[in-house]
Amino acid sequence: ENRIRHIQIKVVPEPEGRTGWFVLGAKDIEEEFVVNQENEKRLETIYAKLQATSSLANAFIKSFESACYVDLTNGTFTIYMASQRLKETLATFTDYLSAFKVYFDYGVHKDDKDKLLALLQYDNIKETLRTKEEFSYVFRDITKGNERFYKVQVVRGDDVNHAAIGFVNVDQSIRSDRESRDKIREAEEMVKRLSSASVIAQLSEKFDYVCYIDGALNQITPYRISRKFLEAFPKVFKSKEPDNVKLDNLFRCLIYPEDFEPFLSNVRRENAVNAIKNQREMNYRFRGIIDGETQWFNLRVAPSNERDGFVLGILNINEEIKTKRQEFNLPVD
Fold first, then answer.
1. Which of 5, 19, 49, 243 has CB atoms 3.0–4.6 Å from 30's, for a disulfide?
2. Alpha carbon of 305 to those of 34, 198, 220, 270: distances in Å?
3. What are the tens digits of pLDDT across the range 31-40?
4. Residues 6 or more apart in contact with residue 110 via CB below 8 angstroms
């Protein structure tokens, strides 16, 4: 045709054991070569675009273990980057998803299979790329027996019908991030515990009863019970009831009968939770009966920086109330 075309030559030495013989074959691959060249140019354009919009793109592209340019209308693909072994495997397929399923069956963790397979369906890729330039998903690879984190990255091509799909090992990065998050979480928990301990220590210096309440777990941990309370309410504190039941019984024994219902309506758990969410203390004064006498007490709910957790304290303030009322010539009761 009086123009240059690309021809593939294949030599098979000694066919059927015939020493000194060889078979020579020639195949016109011009159309295939042109398609590959065009796809590679498209890929270079895509990655150049990606590199211009993402500071991580260059490092990410260099770390690809495999990347293909896929025609999403029919599944045909061009290998852009892959190991020689992978290239040989992919060369036996004409449809990208069929090739991927071979790896999918033995190389993907069972808990990630459904999500990953649904993600890489051609229709799903096209639909996602209508609104996004790229998307990715991290999954667990098990080809070597142990779990390793991999990321599949899908980048839009010339249009939504073409995409570059690449796989990269992100195991070290993921595990380092998790380790860092775990250390941060441990540090935060330590700060919370120290904060709670500080509040508990302050209240325990003079309060008659101090406990920590975990609102989420409905658990109560007592930290201080004064000798006066122990002697006044022995049946409450010597019982084998859970600590949350003991606190409920303490209120019932301590609070003046006529004040019990107002106490419950004002000191509800949701009020305490709202108070600690706003990082403020809640105080409520009430009358109580101890040793047969009516006395005044203050209930304090203090935030502890822990979610749904707070410190509760009960303090006898009878002398304080008595002094103030005497100043204004008011009855103590």
1. 5
2. 65, 11, 16, 16
3. 766 666 666 6
4. none
Q: Helices 122-129 and 110-119: crossing angle, nearest 10°?
A: 60
What is the rounded CA–CA span in Å between residue 108 and residue 142?
Answer: 6
Residue 38 CB neighbour total at 10 angstroms: 13
Which amino acid does the sequence have at 290? I
Return phi, psi of residue 83, to 5°. Answer: -70, 160
Tens digit of each residue's pLDDT (9 = 90 or more) over 68-124:
888 899 988 887 777 776 777 777 888 888 888 877 888 888 888 888 888 999 999
pLDDT digits (tens, 9 = 90+) for 304-319: 766 667 888 999 998 8
H-helix or E-strand containing 37? helix 30-53
Distance CA 301, CA 312 (A): 5
In the block, residue with structure tokens 């039941």: 245
Quote the tokens at residue 41. 């140019």
What are the tokens at 260?
């019990």
**Distance between CA atoms of 238 and 165, rounded to whole angstroms?**
68
Instruction: Give the pLDDT score at 121.
Output: 92
Residue type, 65: E
Q: Bridge partners of 154?
A: 135, 165
CB-based contacts of 219, cutoff 8 Å, min separation 6? 213, 243, 244
Side-chain-side CA neighbours of 296 within 13 Å: the count stands at 15
Amino acid at 255: I
Which tokens go with 86? 């992978």
Contact 164, 67 (CB under 8 A): yes
Residue 35, pLDDT score: 61
User: 52, 46, 51, 82: which is closest to 67 by C-alpha?
Assistant: 82
Give the residue ranges of the chain where pLDDT is below 50.
52-61, 191, 194
- 96 alpha carbon, distance to own chain's centre: 32
Residues 118/137, Cβ–Cβ less than 8 Å: no
- Helix ranges restricted to H, 205-298: 227-232, 234-238, 243-254, 260-266, 269-277
Strand ranges, E, within the chain: 7-13, 22-28, 64-71, 77-81, 134-141, 148-156, 162-169, 209-214, 219-225, 282-290, 293-303, 309-316
